[in-house]
């Protein structure tokens, strides 16, 4: 008599193997970008100067904190689906979609623009990923939650620039 494999109750059991692997890979790509965003926002937090120092110092710190929380959501989803979260510094450095952050920058306006562009890039990456997740609604919901938060932070950063906005260059 043959013993049947026990059926897993994990969400991974409902996804075909290749689809699951692709979803986990994309979760890890978004994880790398999100961790990079957290580090960039913290870099801006530490080094910002100017008349709006206090507000920007807090805003950049909030973005860093939220990006770390979002990283955790992405990593835990990858593991929930039966994968491994790849969140080391080396993983982030090789997988992030963000450009290198200008570490010696102190000008508040330039830092706003730098962080803003990274927030938008992270949101675009997640949006692209989420569009293909109609068969994986929980992962899609996580992406939508993160996109919503990123767009709110982009709007707040943009408001610091007034009429010039983050999309324009003086």
Protein described:
By secondary structure, the chain is mainly α. It has one domain (16-164): Up-down Bundle (Ferritin), CATH 1.20.1260.10. It has five helices and no strands. It has helices spanning 17-47, 53-80, 89-95, 108-131, 137-160. Helix 2 packs antiparallel against helix 5 and helix 4 packs antiparallel against helix 5 (137-160). Residues 1-7 have low confidence and may be disordered.
CATH superfamily: Ferritin, core subunit, four-helix bundle
Outline: elongated
| CATH architecture descriptor | Up-down Bundle
* Overall SS class: mainly alpha
Q: Approximately how much helix is present in the residues?
A: 55-70%
- The average pLDDT score comes to 91
Largest sheet data: none
Question: Rounded to an integer, what's the Rg over CA atoms?
Answer: 18 Å
Note the run of SSEs as H and E: HHHHH
CATH topology: Ferritin
Beta fraction of the residues? under 5%
Total number of strands: 0
Detail the poorly predicted runs.
1-7
Query: Helical region count?
Result: 5
Please give a quick description of this structure.
With 170 residues, this protein is mainly α. The chain is 67% helix and 0% strand. It has one domain: Ferritin (Up-down Bundle), CATH 1.20.1260.
């Amino acid at each position: 008599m043959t013993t049947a494999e026990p059926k897993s109750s994990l969400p991974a059991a409902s996804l075909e193997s290749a689809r699951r692997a692709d979803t986990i890979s994309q979760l890890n790509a978004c994880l790398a970008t999100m961790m990079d965003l957290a580090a960039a926002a913290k870099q801006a937090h530490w080094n910002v100067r100017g008349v709006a120092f206090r507000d920007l110092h807090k805003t950049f710190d909030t973005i860093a904190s939220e990006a770390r929380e979002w990283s955790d959501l992405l990593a835990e989803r990858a593991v929930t689906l039966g994968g491994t979260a790849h969140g080391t510094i080396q993983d982030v450095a090789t997988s992030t979609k963000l450009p290198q952050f200008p570490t010696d920058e102190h000008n508040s306006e330039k830092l706003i623009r730098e962080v803003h562009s990274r927030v938008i890039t992270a949101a675009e990456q997640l949006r692209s990923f989420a569009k293909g997740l109609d068969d994986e609604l929980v992962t899609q919901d996580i992406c939508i939650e993160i996109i919503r938060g990123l767009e709110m932070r982009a709007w707040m950063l943009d408001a610091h620039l007034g009429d010039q906005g983050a999309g324009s260059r003086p």
